[in-house]
Amino acid sequence: MPIVEVQHLTKRYGGRPVVDGVSFTVEEGEVLGLLGHNGAGKTTTVECVAGLRAPDAGTVRVLGVDPAARRDVARRAVGVQLQESTLPDRLRVGEALRLFASFHPAPVDVAALLEALGLAEHRAQAYGDLSGGLKQRLSFALALVGAPRVAVLDELTTGLDPRARREVWQQVRAVVRTRGVAVLLVTHSMEEAERLCDRAAVLARGRVVALDTPAGLVERVAGEQSVRFTPSAALDPAVLRALPEVTDVTTDAPDGLVQVHGRGELVHAVVSVLAREGVVARGLRIERTTLDDAYLALTGSWWTAEQGVTEHEGVHREEVRR
Q1: Domain residue limits at 236
Q2: Nearest to 217 by CA among 203, 195, 206, 202
Q3: Do 21 and 115 fall within a single domain?
Q4: pLDDT band for position 65 (50/70/90)?
Q5: Domain identity same for 157 and 25
Q6: In contact, 122 and 134? CB cutoff 8 Å
Q7: Is the pTM of this model over 0.85?
Q8: Same domain, yes or no, for 281 and 207?
Q9: Residue 306 pLDDT greater than 60, yes or no
Q10: How many whole angstroms separate alpha carbon 225 and alpha carbon 246?
Q11: Is there a single domain that holds both residue 274 and residue 141?
């Protein structure tokens, strides 16, 4: 049985559905990403999973029970890291963890958690003196201190520099591996989704428009790829055009740059031909469909209910007004 099971979840505000028939499951030790624009229904969905809101229709089950009806179960089973949270500036890291641990009947060992998340040397540091990365790491630790079976992580690394972001990703992967926690990750970062998620649900206007692995989402919309290089020796473009994977070949006469367009196993096919011809590809550059491309293709243009204007591809309210 999945640890989290959501079936046809619907939630309305002011008569308008912000979550409209969403369904998914999360298994033990799995990271499921929720991807979508602002207002797509991601946060409302995870709030229903955490028992903070009750659905208007559909069902949510965590460990087989309704978290809104059994909030005692939800509090024990679900740890939540909010997009924005704060603690008293003078509260120390170790004190915060011990305080939160006291709210749970069987918390994890605080000292071990501090060590596992790289916070041991900061245990006596005041919250107000922590860097943004350390505050996010502490927020993650507070979500885990109750030994939850499910962790809800909402915009886990927003605002962090690249080094801090990668450190937090490493900690998430370590926790999933060692503790088998089921993770619901709300994120706008496609790189974060690719690094952490086993599967990802793409939401648009309250509905799941696609649910697959990150690679599977890319494969759904994969278009042409291109390979650019400068050959080390003369190369007849005809040998590349003869490949079934190739749709077009162009050359730039001044510097000899070759650009090959195609589909499927294009890179492998091109590299094999170059090896056969004894040609080295200098400055090789590969361009292919990314998760960003897949996300944009799957969500398409979306419209604000209030004004009926698209905000996709850089068209903003102010521009439409003018």
Answers
A1: 223-287
A2: 202
A3: yes
A4: very high
A5: yes
A6: yes
A7: no
A8: no
A9: no
A10: 9
A11: no
